From TrEMBL:
GO MF entries: D-glucose binding; D-mannose binding
Ranges of residues in domain Jacalin-type lectin: 1-144, 157-301, 309-452
Keyword Phosphoprotein attributed: no
Record-given protein name: Jacalin-type lectin domain-containing protein
Keyword entries, A-Z: Lectin
InterPro entries documented for this protein: Jacalin-like_lectin_dom, Jacalin-like_lectin_dom_plant, Jacalin-like_lectin_dom_sf
Length: 455
């Protein structure tokens, strides 16, 4: 059991929910502090709702975990006095919840003294605390890694590939928690350096080597404790204008759940984007010499619905309506395309072994092309392509411009026009078992579901 009690004397208002199998849902009422918390636990498959700890004032927020695969691993926040509001109490001012897949919050106001529980890796299975009339203190019951049977060594991350040139020397860095990034830049990205937190009891901060040369201006990206990356994008091009026969990274933009940092460098050349919605950034790799020649990512997936299946994000625009097709083995893709991808349709074997022809996701324009796989031995390992805005055609909407389908034996395409922003999904060690996206008159966006396979 771990307890966070900010020296509050209200022992008569203590509460303890006990320990359960896992946590399904948390309800938080907040204003300038945390007014109340209520937890829906799971007791061996039975939903158990706790009492409301505090008073239901302010605005209400819900944290709903993807039961049973997602679980709570840490809570953090701030506590302090609220004398400024005429109440002489020390209360929890803010809460952030971290699961094995993502962060929720912060709820409340991030002012006062910071805390985080638990101090060691584990699974939170219960809460206890003090509340009168607000949430004055909070603690957790923890199931340790050893009890969970979880191996301390994390699974092999997914390689998102690289964009850029082939010069310089290869490098790679993997981590669990990234803290800072240093980027030296001018007309291109001169160098790249990462600070991360080592997986040890001390949480030691480590700077990697500087990957690249010594030129450029320094820009530093400092992440807050509950801030994490959701996108890395940029441009690459050759330096022939400057009399150098090299292709390098010209620009980088780093996006988090809270901010956009950059662009650093010059946005010129071929634009690239790494999609990793629903995945955790756990490493960078690339090539460097005098400049940053290339950059790539390592990502860790979150399993879905008790299986090894995981999402590989979604690329493209936000128009159209969402759709989702899941399968065990795909037999055929039908792609309608011209200046962009008009539609996509799939023939596949579902989980019951039935052959299914999906709806046509998109409009009826374009020429039709078929990708017929060598059933049952051939399977899709990735789909890559381009997306862009159709302003040149008088339409202010982002759609998929081009698709290339890669299998374990060959490559099909490109279909459409390779123009706009490049995107790709991991191809090493995965098998595609689902395709999802958005569509209306065109194919607006596309994403993949996958399972790991042996290389």
């Amino acid at each position: 059991m771990e307890n966070h009690d900010p020296q509050n004397p209200l022992a008569s208002f203590t509460w303890d929910d006990g320990a359960y199998s896992t946590i399904r849902r948390i309800v938080v009422y907040e204003k300038e502090w945390i007014c109340s918390i209520q937890i829906e636990y799971d007791g061996n498959g039975e939903s158990i709702m706790s009492e409301t700890h505090g008073e239901n004032e302010g605005s209400m927020s819900e944290v709903v975990f993807e039961y049973p695969d997602e679980f709570l691993v840490s809570i953090s926040g701030y506590y302090g006095s609220i004398r400024n509001w005429g109440v002489d109490r020390i209360v929890i001012r803010s809460l952030t919840f971290e699961s094995n897949g993502r962060y929720y919050g912060p709820f409340g106001i991030q002012e006062g003294k910071y805390f985080k529980s638990p101090g060691t890796e584990g699974k939170i299975i219960g809460f206890h605390g003090i509340s009168d009339p607000y949430l004055n203190a909070i603690g957790v019951h923890v199931q340790t890694v050893q009890k969970l049977g979880i191996q301390p060594e994390p699974p092999k991350p997914l390689n998102m590939g690289q964009y850029g040139g082939k010069g310089g020397n290869p490098w790679k860095e993997t981590f669990e928690t990234i803290k800072r990034v240093r980027i030296y830049h001018g007309l291109w990205i001169d160098s790249f350096q990462i600070q991360y937190e080592e997986v040890d009891e001390m949480g030691t901060l480590v700077w990697t080597e500087i990957y690249g040369g010594e030129g450029g201006f320094l820009a530093t990206v400092d992440l807050e404790f509950d801030e994490y990356f959701i996108s890395v994008e940029g441009y690459y091009s050759d330096l022939q204008k400057w009399g150098m026969d090299a292709t390098v990274i010209r620009s980088l933009t780093l996006k988090t759940n809270q901010n956009t940092y950059g662009p650093f460098g010059i946005e010129d050349g071929t634009k690239f984007s790494f999609p990793f919605k629903g995945l955790k950034l756990v490493g960078f790799h690339g090539r460097s010499g005098v400049y940053l020649d290339a950059i790539g990512l390592y990502l860790r997936p979150t399993p879905i619905n008790g299986t090894e299946k995981f999402s590989l994000g979604e690329c493209g625009g936000e128009g159209g309506d969402p759709w989702d097709e899941n399968f065990t083995t795909i037999r055929k893709l039908v792609i309608n395309h011209g200046q962009w991808i008009d539609s996509i349709q799939m023939e596949y074997e579902d989980e019951n072994g039935e052959v299914v022809l999906s709806e046509k996701h998109g409009g009826n324009g374009g020429s039709e092309s078929e990708v017929v796989l060598n059933f049952p031995d051939e399977h899709i390992v990735t789909i890559r392509g381009y997306y862009d805005n159709l302003r040149d055609w008088g339409l202010d909407t982002i759609v998929i411009q081009s698709l290339t389908v890669e299998t374990n034996t060959t490559s099909y395409g490109p279909f459409g026009v390779e123009n706009g922003t490049k995107f790709s999904f991991p191809s090493d060690g995965v098998k595609v078992v689902g395709i999802h996206g958005r569509s209306g008159l065109y194919l607006d966006a596309i994403g993949l579901m996958a399972v790991p396979v042996e290389d």
